[in-house]
């Protein structure tokens, strides 16, 4: 691991100023991703700024019914918070399905948003990777790509986004609050992570000098919610396919639905095509399967990951079934 300078800040404006002025700098909170990548020589920051003293550790219910979550709230605290378990169970389930207890205790909300792909070619500095070294090529396209994406890919990158929490956030209709040199702005969670296109090194909509300060969850949508994660083993494993589903019923018909997918796409994936198939339709297994088919209309399979299309469809149908059952309770 290369040496770096370490500094601590206690105010948001200090952190913004550091990020604006210093190139080759990284923030550290829980460090569950950053330290791994520094040890692997994938990231080589000259300076690391400790932000754990920033006043961003509260979960606050706003007057309009939304829930404001500080970027330094741990994954465990967020998952186990009474309001989250009651009103946003899809998010709680997503968080608790990820990593291990020890990692969830350390990992922060903001850090989870910013975590980087687990693609083995990205994590190996000796392999070509457009995300790590633009223009060097994508080793996964013609390599071992069993765990890679089938949605949102390009000829430059097919790496999946690894986060379970982010999938739950997209389904819940979250908004990110960013602070930077030009002030504060908000970005819809589903728009924050970028498709690789021709610039896979640009992973998110964070401008120079900005940092995440909060995530705001929409007022509770009601209905039934479920997060389903399919993986090679039962714990401490990343998703091969996952689905976060929120279903609202009017009698036996679906009046509203939100679906987000993980493990199959290059970013946390809002399955809008599947949602449109379901809205206003009876909540039946046949319609759940029709919605699942619609979600993968534009999927592109590579040499080893075609099974993910089938697996992803099954995840959607099962998550919808379980969310609908919860809505009927």
Automatic annotation (TrEMBL):
Keyword Ribonucleoprotein belongs to the record: no
InterPro entries: CO_DH_flav_C, CO_DH_flav_C_dom_sf, Diverse_Substr_Oxidored, FAD-bd_PCMH, FAD-bd_PCMH-like_sf, FAD-bd_PCMH_sub1, FAD-bd_PCMH_sub2, Mopterin_DH_FAD-bd
FAD-binding PCMH-type domain location: 1-222
Molecular function terms from GO: FAD binding; oxidoreductase activity
Keywords from the named record: FAD, Flavoprotein
Coiled-coil regions, chain positions: none
Domain of life: Bacteria
PANTHER family, alphabetized: OXIDOREDUCTASE, XANTHINE DEHYDROGENASE SUBUNIT C-RELATED
UniProt protein name: Xanthine dehydrogenase YagS FAD-binding subunit
């Amino acid at each position: 691991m290369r040496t770096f300078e370490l500094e601590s800040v206690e105010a948001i404006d200090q952190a913004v100023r550091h990020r604006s002025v210093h190139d080759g700098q990284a923030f550290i909170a829980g460090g569950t991703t950053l330290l791994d990548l520094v040890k692997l020589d994938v990231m080589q920051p000259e300076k690391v700024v400790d932000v754990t003293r920033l006043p961003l550790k509260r979960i606050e219910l706003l007057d309009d019914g939304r829930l404001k979550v500080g970027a330094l709230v741990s994954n465990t605290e967020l998952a186990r918070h009474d309001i989250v378990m009651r009103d946003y169970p899809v998010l709680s389930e997503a968080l608790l399905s990820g990593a291990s207890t020890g990692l969830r205790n350390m990992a922060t909300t903001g850090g989870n948003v910013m975590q980087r792909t687990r693609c083995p070619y990205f994590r190996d500095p000796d392999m070509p990777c457009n995300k790590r070294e633009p223009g060097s090529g994508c080793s996964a396209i013609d390599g071992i790509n069993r765990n890679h994406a089938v949605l949102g890919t390009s000829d430059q990158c097919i790496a999946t986004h690894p986060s379970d929490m982010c999938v739950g956030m997209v389904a819940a209709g979250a908004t990110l609050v960013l602070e930077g040199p030009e002030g504060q702005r908000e970005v819809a969670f589903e728009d924050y992570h970028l498709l690789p296109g021709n610039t896979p090194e640009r992973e998110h909509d964070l401008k120079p000098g900005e940092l995440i300060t909060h995530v705001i969850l929409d007022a509770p949508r009601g209905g039934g919610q479920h997060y389903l994660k399919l993986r090679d083993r039962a714990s401490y494993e990343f998703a091969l396919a996952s689905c976060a589903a929120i279903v609202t019923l009017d009698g036996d018909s679906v009046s509203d639905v939100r679906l987000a997918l993980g493990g199959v796409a290059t970013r946390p994936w809002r399955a809008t095509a599947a949602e449109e198939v379901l809205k206003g339709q009876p909540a039946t297994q046949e319609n759940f399967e029709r919605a699942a088919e619609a979600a993968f209309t534009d999927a592109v399979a590579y040499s080893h990951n075609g099974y993910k299309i089938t697996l992803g469809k099954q995840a959607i149908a099962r998550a919808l079934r379980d969310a609908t059952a919860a809505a009927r309770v």
